[in-house]
C-alpha cells in the first residue's frame, strides 16, 4: 500500500514535508537567534573552551634571585601546565560593535616543577634541590570582541580584540626550604601571571582561527536526495542587535546538476511575527518559494509520475468495482485488475497563508487494464485537486492534517464509450475524502521526527504559518 499511496502523500505534502527541512541576494530561509539563544550559545562555547584550553603548557621560566643570607640563587620553573580552567561568571552582548564576550572571576589550576642551585664562599660545593608545586590562579578575566560577516557566501568570524588578566596567584610547594617559598613568589609571581595571560590569549586566538576555518568550510549546497540539493549560501552580513542575531541563507532547492536562479521567485517582506512572547531561543523562517523551488526541481526531473497498483480499498482497482458506473468497461474486461498511471501536468501551486499551506495540483490520470499479456489504456482524465495542510509540532515530531478544498475532473478520452462524468466525479471525490485523505492523515498523525544536529535538538517547538512564511519558534537542548 505504501507504493500506491505515496504519490498522493507526496503531492499533498510537498510543502509540508519540505518544511521539516555579498551582493544583495535575497534569502528565503532565515534564523533569528534571540538573547536567550545567544546566552545558550555563549554557555556552550564557554563549556567547550574550558575543556579545549587544557592541558596548556607554558614556556620554562628561569631567573637569578638574591636571597638574604643565601646569596645569588638560580631558579628554574619547568613543565608548567594549566590543568583546569573554571568559569563562574560570563556575559555576552551584541550590537554595532560586534559580539562582546566577557569572563570574570574565573579560576585556573597549574602544576609545575621547580629547581634551584647556588653556591657561597662558605661552601666550596653547589647546593641544589628540586620538587613540584601547584599554582592556583584566581580572578582570571578574559574579554574578546568578535565580528561576524559573510565572505563569498560563507560566514567569516574575526577576532577584533582579545585580552586576559590575572588578579592573584597562590603557590603551594611540595618540599623545599622555608626561604624558597617567598623567593619563588617574589621572583615568579608576575612572570607566571604574564605567562598565563599570554598562553590563554594565544590559545583563544588559535581557537577563533580554527572556528573561522570551520565556518568557511561549511558546504554551500546540501544534497537532500539524489535529485535535489538545498542552497545554503549565506546572503548579506548577519544583523546584530542588542537582543538578537539574524542570519539569512538563499534556501532554494535546485537540481544537483543545475542552478535555480533566485530571480525566478519573488519573495515578500518577512512578516513581523515574533517568538518573543513565547521566549524561545531561535526563530526559523521559511518562505513559500522554498517549497515552490522543491516542486519545480522534482517536476522538471520527471519525478512526479507514478504507477499506482494498490489503494486502501483495493476493489477500486478492479473492473468489477466499476461495473455499475462504467458498464462497458466491465463488459469488455470482466474482473480485470487495473492500475493508475498518474502524472503531474504542471508544478503544483503552493501558498502559505494564515495557519495553513494551500496547494493546487493538476494531474493527468490514465486508467490501464491489466490483460494477460499487455497493459491496455482505456480511459484518461484531467484532475485538479485543491488542498490545505495544517501543521503542528508535538514531542519533537512534525504532525498535521490535510483537507480537500476543491476537486475537478474532466474526460480526455475514452475507449469504453460515453461516461456519466458528474457521477464519476462525485464518486472520485468521495474516494478522496473517505479513503485517500484518511489514510494520509493517519500517516501524518504518526509524525515525522525533527532532525538532530550534532547532538542537539529542538525543544518545545511551535510552528506558525503567516503570509508567505512558515515560522518555527523553538528552544534548543542536548540529546
Automatic annotation (TrEMBL):
GO molecular function: lipid binding
Signal peptide limits: 1-23
Cellular component GO terms, alphabetical: extracellular space
Key words, A-Z: Glycoprotein, Signal
PROSITE patterns membership: PROKAR_LIPOPROTEIN
InterPro entries for the chain: Bactericidal_perm-incr_a/b_dom, BPI/LBP, BPI/LBP_pln, Lipid-bd_serum_glycop_C, Lipid-bd_serum_glycop_N
Gene3D superfamilies: Bactericidal permeability-increasing protein, domain 1, Bactericidal permeability-increasing protein, domain 2
Domain Lipid-binding serum glycoprotein N-terminal: 33-258
Occurrences of domain Lipid-binding serum glycoprotein C-terminal (ranges): 276-474
Family: Belongs to the BPI/LBP/Plunc superfamily. BPI/LBP (TC 1.C.40) family.
Classification via PANTHER family: LIPOPOLYSACCHARIDE-BINDING PROTEIN, OS06G0309200 PROTEIN
Protein name (database record): BPI/LBP family protein At1g04970
Provenance organism: Sesamum indicum
Organism classification: Eukaryota, Viridiplantae, Streptophyta, Embryophyta, Tracheophyta
Amino acid at each position: 500500500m505504501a507504493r500506491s499511496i505515496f504519490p498522493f502523500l507526496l503531492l499533498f505534502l510537498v510543502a509540508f514535508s519540505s518544511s521539516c527541512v555579498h551582493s544583495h541576494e535575497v534569502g528565503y530561509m532565515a534564523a533569528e537567534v534571540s538573547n536567550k539563544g545567544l546566552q545558550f550559545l555563549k554557555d556552550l562555547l564557554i563549556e567547550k573552551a574550558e575543556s579545549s584550553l587544557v592541558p596548556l603548557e607554558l614556556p620554562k621560566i628561569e631567573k637569578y634571585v638574591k636571597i638574604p643570607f643565601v646569596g645569588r640563587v638560580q631558579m628554574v620553573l619547568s613543565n608548567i601546565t594549566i590543568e583546569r580552567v573554571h568559569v563562574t561568571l560570563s556575559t555576552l552582548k551584541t550590537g554595532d560593535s560586534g559580539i562582546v564576550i566577557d569572563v570574570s572571576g574565573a579560576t585556573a589550576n597549574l602544576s609545575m616543577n621547580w629547581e634551584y642551585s647556588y653556591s657561597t664562599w662558605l661552601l666550596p660545593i653547589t647546593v641544589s634541590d628540586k620538587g613540584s608545586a601547584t599554582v592556583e590562579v584566581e580572578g582570571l578575566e578574559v574579554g574578546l570582541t568578535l565580528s561576524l560577516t559573510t565572505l563569498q557566501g560563507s560566514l567569516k568570524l574575526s577576532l577584533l580584540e582579545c585580552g586576559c588578566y590575572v588578579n592573584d596567584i597562590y603557590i603551594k610547594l611540595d618540599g623545599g626550604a622555608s626561604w624558597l617559598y617567598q623567593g619563588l613568589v617574589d621572583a615568579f609571581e608576575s612572570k607566571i601571571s604574564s605567562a598565563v595571560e599570554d598562553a590563554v590569549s594565544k590559545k583563544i586566538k588559535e581557537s577563533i582561527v580554527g572556528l573561522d576555518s570551520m565556518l568557511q568550510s561549511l558546504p554551500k549546497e546540501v544534497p537532500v536526495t539524489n535529485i535535489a540539493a538545498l542552497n545554503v549560501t549565506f546572503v548579506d552580513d548577519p544583523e546584530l542587535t542588542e537582543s538578537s542575531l539574524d542570519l539569512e541563507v538563499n534556501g532554494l532547492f535546485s537540481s544537483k546538476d543545475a542552478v535555480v536562479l533566485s530571480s525566478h521567485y519573488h519573495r515578500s517582506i518577512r512578516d513581523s511575527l515574533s517568538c518573543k512572547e513565547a521566549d524561545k531561543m531561535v526563530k526559523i523562517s521559511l518562505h513559500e518559494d522554498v517549497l515552490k523551488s522543491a516542486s519545480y526541481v522534482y517536476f522538471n526531473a520527471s519525478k512526479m509520475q507514478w504507477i499506482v497498483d494498490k489503494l486502501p480499498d483495493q476493489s477500486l482497482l478492479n473492473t468489477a468495482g466499476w461495473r455499475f458506473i462504467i458498464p462497458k468497461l466491465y463488459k469488455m474486461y470482466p474482473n480485470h485488475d487495473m492500475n493508475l498511471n498518474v502524472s503531474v501536468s504542471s508544478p503544483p501551486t503552493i501558498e502559505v497563508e494564515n495557519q495553513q499551506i494551500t496547494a493546487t495540483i493538476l494531474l493527468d490520470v490514465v486508467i490501464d487494464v491489466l490483460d494477460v499479456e499487455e497493459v491496455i489504456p482505456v480511459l484518461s482524465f484531467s484532475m485538479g485537486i485543491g488542498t490545505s495542510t495544517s501543521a503542528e509540532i508535538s514531542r519533537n515530531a512534525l504532525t498535521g492534517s490535510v483537507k480537500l478544498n476543491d476537486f475537478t475532473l474532466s474526460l480526455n478520452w475514452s475507449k469504453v464509450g460515453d461516461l456519466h462524468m458528474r457521477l464519476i466525479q462525485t464518486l472520485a471525490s468521495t474516494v478522496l475524502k473517505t479513503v485517500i485523505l484518511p489514510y494520509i492523515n493517519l500517516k501524518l498523525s504518526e509524525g515525522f521526527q525533527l532532525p538532530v544536529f550534532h547532538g542537539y535538538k529542538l525543544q518545545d517547538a511551535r510552528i506558525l504559518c503567516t503570509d508567505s512564511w512558515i515560522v518555527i519558534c523553538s528552544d534548543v537542548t542536548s540529546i
